[in-house]
Amino acid sequence: MRRTWAPRGQTPLLTVAGHWTKISSISAITVSPLRRRLALYARFHHDKNIRSPQVLSFLRYLLKHIRGPVILLWDGGKQHRSKTVQEFLRRYPRLQVNRFPAYAPELNPDEFVWNNLKRAVANSVPKDLPHLRRLLDRPLQRLKHSQKLLRSCLRASDLSWT
User: Fold this and answer.
1) Per-residue pLDDT averaged across 49-60, rounded?
2) Between 5 and 50, where is the model more confident?
3) What CATH number is attached to the domain comprising 72?
4) What is this structure's pTM?
């Protein structure tokens, strides 16, 4: 929920929908080393937290779509430290992992991707999770196809990209 407008003296009423929980997401912003082009890869999972199986599926997806070495910057979440994920990383040396400090969302450009998406659907009233997922599609596609917006997510983070 975000601030909204209403005529003076009339409190805005926003309907809250359903008894559903959430959509979890996993994503990556990639930077091409030669052309410096950016890309956004994202997946949504209805009614479940991101755990090791979802991380493994996403890593396979990245390996399938990205050529050459992949440098991952991620937090120290439990799902990233699991034995199955660590074994997968050992099997695929193309994946190099660097961890963010313990709690540093300001360093993670993906945080700015999700802030952008949350802002885009703020104050909407989805009927259910599939409807929420559809509401996220247009702003996600806009982000994916805009070098300018993706670069703004990188610049907004406190990481040095030079």
Assistant:
1) 93
2) 50
3) 3.30.420.10
4) 0.80
Under 8 Å between Cβ of 108 and 100 = yes
Tens digits of per-residue pLDDT, 73-112?
888 788 988 999 999 999 999 999 888 877 788 888 888 9
Hey, is 72 helix, strand or coil? strand
- Residue span of the structural domain in which 58 resides: 23-156
- Between strands 38-46 and 23-31, the pairing is antiparallel
Q: CB–CB of 110/29 below 8 Å?
A: yes
Cβ neighbours of residue 33 under 8 Å, at least 6 residues apart? 68
- Look at the block and give the residue holding tokens 């196809």: 145
The C-alpha angle 126, 121, 150, rounded to 5 degrees, equals 140
Q: How far apart are CA 142 and CA 149, in angstroms?
A: 8
**Quick one: which of 50, 52, 1 has its CA closest to 23?**
50
How far is the C-alpha of 50 from the C-alpha of 146, rounded, in Å? 26
Q: How many domains does the chain have?
A: 1
Q: For residues 159 and 162, what is the distance between their CA atoms, to the nearest angstrom? A: 9
- pLDDT (mean) for 57-65: 95
What's the pLDDT at 46? Answer: 78
Token pair 């993706």: residue: 150
* Sign of the torsion formed by the C-alpha atoms of 20, 135, 109 and 27: positive
